[in-house]
Amino acid sequence: MRGRAPCRFRPGGGVARTGDGGSVLRAGVEAVRNQLEINQAAGGLYEAILDLPTRPFTVIVLRHLLGYPTKRIARYMGLDTRSVDYHGRKGKKRCASSSACPP
Q: What domain range is 34 assigned to?
């Protein structure tokens, strides 16, 4: 197996080989973060999402913006599915109570 790139999880299913060892999902999450920073005209929702801590931000982006199922998010993040649900709930609650979100 020498000389082969490490296997990485691919969002569409299966694995993708990446030469730099980077994660395809991580790149997707960072791309969404960059888009949210650019699109500040959504009534404060994007600002509230950007202000979330890392785990709730990742869960909100993967689940609600990119449409990934809980099991896949859990596998990517190395968490139990209940932990993913917890971070999703806390992220949504924090966004709702944020001063950046309109009532």
A: 7-97
pTM: 0.66
Please give the single-letter amino acid code of residue 57: F
Number of domains in the chain: 1
How far, in Å, CA of 60 to CA of 67, rounded? 9
What are the tens digits of pLDDT across the range 71-98?
999 998 899 999 999 999 999 999 888 7
Cβ atoms of 76 and 33 within 8 Å: the answer is no
What's the CATH number where 51 sits?
A: 1.10.10
CB within 8 Å of 93: residues ≥ 6 apart:
none
Helical ranges in 1-103 per DSSP H:
24-38, 45-50, 54-60, 70-77, 81-97
Alpha carbons 95 and 97: distance in angstroms, whole number? 6
The single-letter DSSP state of residue 52 is: S
Tokens standing for residue 8? 């990485």
d(CA 94, CA 48): 8
